[in-house]
């Protein structure tokens, strides 16, 4: 027996149905060659592999397993406090709280860029120190 009231269950069921509708709508938009709501589509499979990317940014990844340690570039750090999930590129600093889900999030935070700035540089083919890999938006 569930401890949730019928109203709460109905709310969660409605939210799930809305999420399914939104996903179907976005898929239809992509199939028709249109960009989903939000203004742009982004193919994350075109991001660089996490391990070589982080090493090219000067991080010395250490450890074993899915999460590796590195010295955090977001604050003055002397001990490795940044954890990097090597399969996805996700990162999280245990000291300053910096976090993100992939190498794009890391790159944007490290170089103080927002998505629009990053997309503009990428579209123009501009190569700078803070724009060291090609993203297709």
Please explain how this structure is put together.
- The protein is α+β, with helices and mostly antiparallel strands and 137 residues long.
- It has two domains: 1-33; 45-124, DNA Primase, Chain A (Alpha-Beta Complex), CATH 3.90.580.
- Helices cover 37% and strands 9% of the residues.
- It has helices at 6-31, 50-56, 103-110, 115-124; strands spanning 67-70, 82-85, 91-93, 99-100.
- A hairpin with a 5-residue loop joins β3 and β4.
- The model has no long low-confidence stretch (mean pLDDT 78).
Model regions low in confidence, pLDDT < 50 over at least 5 residues: none
- Give the strand order of the largest sheet, numbering strands 1, 2, ... along the chain: 1-2-3-4
Any idea what the shape is?
extended
The tally of helices reads 4
Q: Oligomeric state of the chains?
A: single chain
Number of domains: 2
Superfamily at the CATH H level of the largest domain?
Zinc finger, CHC2-typedomain
Q: Look at the structure and give the mean pLDDT.
A: 78
Distance between the termini: 47 Å
Elements, N to C (H/E)? HHEEEEHH
Q: Largest sheet, if any?
A: 4 strands, antiparallel
Q: Can you name the CATH architecture of the largest domain? A: Alpha-Beta Complex
What would CATH call the class of the largest domain?
A: Alpha Beta
């Amino acid at each position: 027996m569930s401890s949730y009231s019928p109203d709460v269950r109905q709310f969660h069921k409605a939210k799930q149905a809305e999420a399914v509708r939104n996903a179907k709508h976005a898929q239809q938009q992509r199939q028709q060659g249109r960009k989903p709501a939000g203004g742009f589509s982004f193919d994350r499979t075109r991001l660089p592999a996490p391990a070589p990317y982080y090493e090219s940014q000067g991080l010395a990844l250490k450890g074993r397993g899915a999460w590796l340690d590195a010295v955090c570039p977001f604050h003055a750090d002397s001990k490795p406090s940044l954890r990097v999930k090597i399969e996805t590129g996700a990162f999280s600093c245990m000291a300053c709280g910096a976090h993100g889900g992939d190498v794009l999030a890391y790159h944007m935070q490290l170089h103080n860029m927002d998505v629009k700035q990053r997309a503009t540089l990428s579209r123009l083919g501009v190569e700078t120190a803070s724009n060291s890999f090609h993203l297709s938006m």
